[in-house]
Amino acid sequence: MCRFCWFLSIVLAVATAGLAWKFILSGETVVASDGRTAIVLEAGERDLVLTEMRAFLEAAQKILDASVRGDVTAVAEAARAVGRAAAGPVPGSLVGKLPLGFKQLGFATHDGFDRLAMDVEALGDTAEVPERLAQLMNNCVGCHAAFRLEVGER
Ligand code: HEC
Hints:
The chain has helices spanning 3-26, 43-68, 72-80, 92-95, 100-123, 129-146, and strands at 29-31, 37-41, 147-151. With 154 residues, it is mainly alpha-helical. It has a single domain (3-151), classed as Four Helix Bundle (Hemerythrin (Met), subunit A) (Up-down Bundle). It starts with a helix and ends with a strand.
């Protein structure tokens, strides 16, 4: 290959690696005033994430309430409402701004609710639900300790 082609290939490879790093791993982040990692989003994107969060909280309340009443169907319904399928499409532009650790914890949480729904139906009993929910909510606690959201143009 000609020298220039080599040069061009290397420039392209570096650019691709840089984009992959930015899009998949790091996201759009800064260190926040409280030491957490702040994810910098547009106002509408932040609204979308927070709407999903309030759905998580609502689901947790419903699951706990239904498990106390021994209502298997209501537990499964509330858990599926925040499962992977219900999470709704996340725009690619937003996915690119979320760091890898955030995405992994987010997916794991949606999957955890799906598994909870499946297991409670399979068992036909809600006895283990509070313990499972308490475990799953370690994801909420862990993510909130590590990340926050900020609105900004970067
Ligand atoms: C992948 C990371 C992540 C996971 C998992 C997560 N959260 Fe959040 N949540 C956040 C971030 C980031 C914020 C914004 C916090 C901030 O800016 O200080 C937030 C905010 C919230 C809010 C505030 C919503 C509002 O309208 O202001 C609630 C309520 C909430 N989360 C509940 C939950 C519950 C309940 C769970 C678990 C079932 C959960 N979250 C799991 C990252 C996460």
